């Protein structure tokens, strides 16, 4: 099972409502994934600032804050449920090394200039409430409700997976060759935090993009390398992209009008979006990359 | 004809609506219904066994009008997986697009999709007629046994794979044919059938001569060791 959702706004009309749109979408996908939920929402960049989303792992904001003072000169910390967002001018290469070395009990969920990414175990409705998703604004976002079929029900096992700056991925399905791909990617310097198949797919995409490919070409190529059943929604700071494997057992429906594009596992997830009854509704074709963005 | 009765899914539960429609005494009660606010709910109007008319205003989820018998159901919107699956008789029509497995295993009646149908349309078809105004996705009419699938647009990969005795008519391009499915000549009775289906669906701007017929080559009916690579 699992439920996936994504929304991309074509103009600024609904920017302030993006969080509440995504919240309604995730809430209605509760039945497809009651174990855990997560989301990534992309908002305006603040010049020279990076956001590091970090799960506190039952430690307190204070535990993090005290130590952060030692390592980060210019920073702010915002608490969101059991996560904090560390906002700093420190660039990822250095910041990640500091975090990995000196903040090992905390988990880095994702980072970037535009991305806000949070995930948690528990009922999606609670997760949405805990992170006050409705209060977020932005230009696009993706989300996931999980019904675990492999790897544990933990924060590390939850989606979205973010394996590079401002990149993230949600997945409905299962990959059969992820162990092999993981080994290949580790040899090339990739790092993985879980046994989850989707993390490997996210790592694969980040690896290809790092080598200079664009998201659309990377997804197209993944048809050859990633074996299994999947509907993927990938996000980066420019927009979102969608891919279904060529057999297309895993559902997806797209709604598009002049203001937005919404993707979901089931139509129910977008029934509450404005003007939805007049939107163009279609099932995306298998093996075709759809992308929307700047 | 009785009055038009409105059933609002915001006010009445799905189960109540289905129960009401399944257990009507049509000699006494309304026969015309409008269902509002479906909001993509699943299994709406399943298992109806009487000649009643239902208009659904909005998009529906999975298995809408499944097992339909005699009822005429119009969906003014799009439909999810398995619309009219296992239909026995009656008509189901959809103004928009539908997801995969539309009309799966349908035994009788008419399913009309004004837009596109996704993959596996008419899978295991057992006697119903399916008309698609747009195109169909891959593996359509897979193992279809009886009935017909008329496609006014294009067909995806592996059309009619492992086909039995259903007829497939396609007006546009066929991306590829499935195993044991071949193009066949159009007979008089095929032209009549195409004209009949187009007329039932009120499709007037299409010339019946533009369709090609596809049917079973009948090589996979019985197990034959020489065909082992095809199974």
What would your notes on this structure say?
The complex is a heterodimer of chains A (294) and B (231). Chain A has seven helices and 16 strands. Chain A has 294 residues and is α+β, with helices and mostly antiparallel strands. The model of chain A has no long low-confidence stretch (mean pLDDT 95). In chain A, helix 5 (178-187) crosses helix 6 (197-210) and helix 6 packs across helix 7 (215-225). In chain A, the strands form three sheets. Chain A has a seven-stranded antiparallel beta sheet, with helices on one face. In chain A, strands 9-10-11-12-16 form a five-stranded antiparallel beta sheet. In chain A, strands 4-5-3-6 form a four-stranded antiparallel beta sheet, with helices on one face. The two termini of chain A are 31 Å apart. With 231 residues, chain B is mainly beta. Chain B has a single domain, classed as Glutamate synthase, alpha subunit, C-terminal domain (Pectate Lyase C-like), CATH 2.160.20. In chain B, strands 1-2-3-4-5-6-7-8-9-11-10 form an eleven-stranded mixed beta sheet, covered by helices on one side. In chain B, strand 1 (4-8), helix 1 and strand 2 (32-36) form a beta-alpha-beta unit. The longest helix of chain B has 13 residues, at 188-200. Chain A binds chain B through residues 248, 251, 253, 266-272, 276-277, 281-283, 285-286, and chain B through 39-42, 58-62, 77-78, 80-81, 96-100, 115-116, 118-119, 137-138, 156.
């Amino acid at each position: 099972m699992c439920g996936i959702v994504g929304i991309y706004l074509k103009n600024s009309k609904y920017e302030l409502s993006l969080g509440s749109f995504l919240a309604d979408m995730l809430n209605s996908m509760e039945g497809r994934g009651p174990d855990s939920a997560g989301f990534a929402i992309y908002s305006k960049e603040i010049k020279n600032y990076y956001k590091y989303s970090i799960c506190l792992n039952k430690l307190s904001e204070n535990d993090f804050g005290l130590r952060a003072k030692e390592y980060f000169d210019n920073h702010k910390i915002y608490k969101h449920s059991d996560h904090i967002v560390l906002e700093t001018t420190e660039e990822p290469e250095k910041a990640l090394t500091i975090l990995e070395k000196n903040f090992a009990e905390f988990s880095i969920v994702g980072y970037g200039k535009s991305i806000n990414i949070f995930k948690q175990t528990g009922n999606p409705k609670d997760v949405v409430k805990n992170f006050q998703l409705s209060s977020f604004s932005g230009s696009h976002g993706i989300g996931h409700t999980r019904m675990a079929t492999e790897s544990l029900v933990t924060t590390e096992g939850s989606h979205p997976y973010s394996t590079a700056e401002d990149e993230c991925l949600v997945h409905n399905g299962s990959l059969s060759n992820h162990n092999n791909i993981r080994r290949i990617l580790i040899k090339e310097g990739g790092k993985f935090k879980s046994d989850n198949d989707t993390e490997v797919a996210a790592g694969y995409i980040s690896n290809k993009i790092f080598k200079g490919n664009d998201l659309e070409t990377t997804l197209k190529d993944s048809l050859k390398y990633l074996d299994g059943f999947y509907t993927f929604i990938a996000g980066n700071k420019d927009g979102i992209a969608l891919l279904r494997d060529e057999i297309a057992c895993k559902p997806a429906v797209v709604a598009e009008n002049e203001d937005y594009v919404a993707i979901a596992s089931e139509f129910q997830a977008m029934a509450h979006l404005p003007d939805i009854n007049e939107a163009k509704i279609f099932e995306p074709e298998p093996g075709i990359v759809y992308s929307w963005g700047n | 004809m009785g009055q038009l009765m409105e059933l609002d899914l915001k006010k009445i539960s799905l189960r109540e609506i289905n129960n009401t429609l399944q257990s009507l005494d049509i000699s006494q009660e309304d026969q015309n219904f409008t269902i509002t606010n479906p909001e993509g709910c699943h299994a709406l109007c399943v298992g109806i066994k009487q000649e009643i008319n239902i208009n659904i205003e909005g998009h529906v989820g999975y298995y809408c009008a499944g097992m339909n018998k005699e009822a005429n159901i119009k969906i003014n919107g799009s439909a999810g997986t398995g619309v009219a699956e296992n239909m026995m008789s009656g008509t189901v029509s959809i103004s928009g697009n539908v997801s995969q497995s539309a009309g799966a295993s349908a035994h009788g009646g008419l399913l009309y999709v004004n837009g596109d149908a996704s993959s596996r349309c008419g899978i295991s078809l057992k006697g119903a007629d399916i008309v698609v105004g747009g195109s169909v996705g891959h593996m359509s009419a897979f193992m279809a046994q009886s009935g017909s699938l008329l496609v006014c647009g294009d067909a995806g990969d592996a059309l009619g794979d492992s086909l039995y005795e259903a007829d497939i008519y396609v007006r546009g391009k066929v991306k590829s044919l499935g195993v044991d499915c071949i193009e066949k000549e159009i007979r008089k009775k095929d032209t009549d059938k195409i004209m009949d289906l187009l007329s039932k669906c009120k499709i007037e701007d299409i010339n019946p001569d533009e369709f090609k017929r596809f049917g079973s080559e009948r090589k996979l009916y019985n197990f034959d060791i020489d065909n082992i690579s095809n199974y």
